[in-house]
Amino acid sequence: MRPVSANSSSGDLFKHAVLAVGSIFILLPFAVMIATSFKSPADIASGALRLFPTEYHGFANYAEALSATPLLRYMANGVIVTASIFALQLLVALPCAYALAKLKWRGRDTVFGLILFCLLIPPHAVAIPVYVLFYWLGILDSYTSLILPWTISVFGIFLMRQFFKTVPDDLIDAARMDGISEFGIVWRVMLPTALPAVTAFGIFSIIAHWNDYFWPLIVLSSEDYYTPPLGVATFRTAEVGYVFGPLMAAATIIIAPLVLTFLLAQRRFIEGITFTGMK
Amino acid sequence: MADITLSPDRLQRTQTPATRRRASLRNFKAQGLAWMLALPALFLMAMLLLGPLLAVVVLSFTDYSLGNASLDWRGLDNYQAMLGDDIFYKSISNTLVYVGIVVPGSLLLGLGAALLIESLTRGKAFWRAVYFLPVMATLIAMAIVWEFMMSARFGIIPQTLALLGFPAKNWLQETATALPVLCIIGIWQSLGFNMVLFMAGLSGIPRTLYEALELDGGSSAWTRFWTITWPMLAPVTMFVVIITAIRSFQVFDTVHVLTKGGPNNATMVLIYQIYQEGFDFFRSSYAAALTVVFLVFIFILTVIKARTIENKVHYS
To answer: Domain range holding A187?
Structure first.
């Protein structure tokens, strides 16, 4: 919608005001979190409605957050798990998507139908049997148990198949003329042309798995494999009587990687979310 | 043609038996190759999605509990137990209340934000980033921040409300208000996502429509919204309703961290009950039966969503 009225600047001013009021609701938790992470216990206990600390306690809080629980270890686990999941998702999904989009074979429509059906299955629904399976395989409480269930992304296959459909056939024919194998075509021709879709899917996948709480909560029992969400939840219960300063510092550290990346590459993130969200 | 199988007309042109044999051999290899490419995905799909889906339905008719070496067929026992389970009724009704509040709440606020931001001349990217921020932030970490803001003694929310004359209570620990507080957190977290989808929908409306309306004398924002924006957004709106409903049905994180289903089961929801039965009490078969109920709800919503996507094609 274009502003049509001549006094659009005063209209804009009003809109900015409304958005600013609304943003109080949105930003309040972030403001409280960051402000509290710099406050001393006495400051917090006073319960006074104050944004800035009376005495700076930031260093102590962040040091406590990093030493009371192995927060950096949890972050490293988060990176290992999300990166492995995304890499394996691509490894499994791209060849399948290529076969579905560009090759003609008996059974293709049935396979695609199965994928559409699998899109309907919410992850919570298969949690119990997968847990039982992992229990009998003896792989609970490991990186494998965190990564394996997500290596198959039917959504990823669907998304990439739709994108591959739009890649011109000439490109593939030319690659075949050059003697590139079908496997080679997937990685050397399709992947580079599909980079925007792969990026969008990556953003979607990384947000989902960095923030996931349900599955790690179920399969893990030892802290060695904890991912950031479990880590911050443990921090809360581990600290006797809720030491809020370090707790808020821990929360800040855990949300920082994704939030900062988002702020730096805002447009790409929003495009990616729109692209994957509308499917 | 990128299809590796040869097209029929080319086969007819080269009708000697030798070439035909060679062609069918190539075809056979191409078929095998296609299956090879799809095989890892198919194997994992069977192991991790289709098999477990079947297993959850089968388990719901048994008495299996985790660790047992054997199981017995129990027919509809679990479902019968469910009908007599007060907590089950509570979790169904709480889940529906949660969905019923979060869906319209995050839809209207998301739409409002999208309309306001899209109509700005400056500062679009800034406000979009602000409103999208909660989507990016790890919900568990932010739930803990909300809990702190709610705490009776130091929380900013009870302290502010106390200035207005309300009792300084932790609203998360009150039976009447715990679920509404979780709904507010749910709306806070999801409205930015809906906003982004609405913005995409808005940018797809041809500007000529607004120009035509203006020529017809309809220039107030009100008329423009109801005659063009709202009807043109209908498919996106429907889509947003369904995906927000599906997500809200799966509410778990905030419940687990903030209330554990309490007080007095006031925030007991379906996924949380499944979690408790399956992973706290290890009553796997009963948890499986609850999962089947959950699946029925999700399937209905997803079928509606698939229909909506089909309809959307007509608009683009």
So the answer is: 70-226
Biggest distance spanned by C-alpha atoms of chain B? 95
Measure A88 CA to nearest chain B CA, in Å.
11
Determine the Cα–Cα distance for residues A120 and B300; give it in Å rounded to an integer.
10
pLDDT in tens, A13-41: 899 999 999 999 999 999 999 988 888 77
The number of distinct structural domains making up chain B is 2
Are B38 and A121 in contact (CB < 8 Å)? Answer: no
Considering the domain architecture, whether residues A37 and A78 belong to the same structural domain is answered as no
- What is this model's ipTM? 0.88
Cα–Cα distances in Å, from A6 out to A10, A11, A175, A183, B126?
9, 9, 57, 60, 24
So what's the pLDDT on residue A238? 63
Query: Could you tell me the two tokens for B261?
Result: 């289903």
Residue in B closest to A230 by C-alpha: B140
Nearest to A266 among B38, B129, B294 (CB): B129
Judge: A95–B40 Cβ closer than 8 Å, yes or no: yes
Asked whether the beta carbons of residue A19 and residue B146 sit closer than 8 angstroms, the reply is no
Across the interface, do A213 and B252 touch by the CB < 8 Å criterion? yes
- Give the global pTM: 0.88
Total domains in the fold of chain A: 2
Mean pLDDT, range A175-186, rounded to an integer: 89
Closest residue to B140, CB basis, from A15, A233, A247 = A233
**CATH number of domain containing A199:** 1.10.3720.10
Q: Given this model, what pLDDT does residue B219 score?
A: 73
- Which residue, among B108, B144, B190, B284, would best test binding to A if mutated, counting the most A CBs under 10 Å from its CB? B144
Q: Which of B109, B129, B131, B106 is nearest to B247 (CA)?
A: B106
Look at the alpha carbons of A32, A38, A40, A43 in this order and tell me if their dihedral is positive or negative.
negative
Contact call for A214 and B253, based on CB within 8 A: yes
Query: Is residue A8 within 8 Å of B217, Cβ to Cβ?
Result: no
Judged against a pLDDT cut of 60, whether residue A3 lies above it is answered with no
* Same domain, residue pair A203 and A96: yes
Nearest CA-CA partner of B195 in B116, B113, B105: B113
CB A12 within 8 A of CB B124: no
Given CA atoms B296, B298, B301, B307 in this order, what sign does their dihedral have? negative
Task: Clarify whether residues A129 and A248 are in a common domain.
Answer: no
Answer whether B295 sits within 8 Å of A27, measured CB to CB: no
Give the model's pLDDT for residue B17.
Answer: 67
DSSP string, B119-182: T-SS-HHHHHHHHHHHHHS-HHHHHHHHHHHH-TTT-HHHHHHHHTT-----GGGSTTTHHHHH
Tell me the C-alpha distance between A169 and B133, whole Å.
Answer: 40
Q: Are residues A91 and A177 in the same domain?
A: yes
- CB spacing of B133 vs A30 below 8 angstroms: yes
Range of the domain at B150: 78-312
Which residues of chain A have a CB within 8 Å of the CB of B221? 1
> Average of pLDDT values for A193-214?
91
Query: Domain for residue A14, yes or no?
Result: yes
Shared-domain flag, residues A54 and A122: no
> Is B213 found in the same domain as B155?
yes
Distance from A239 to chain B by nearest Cα, in Å?
13
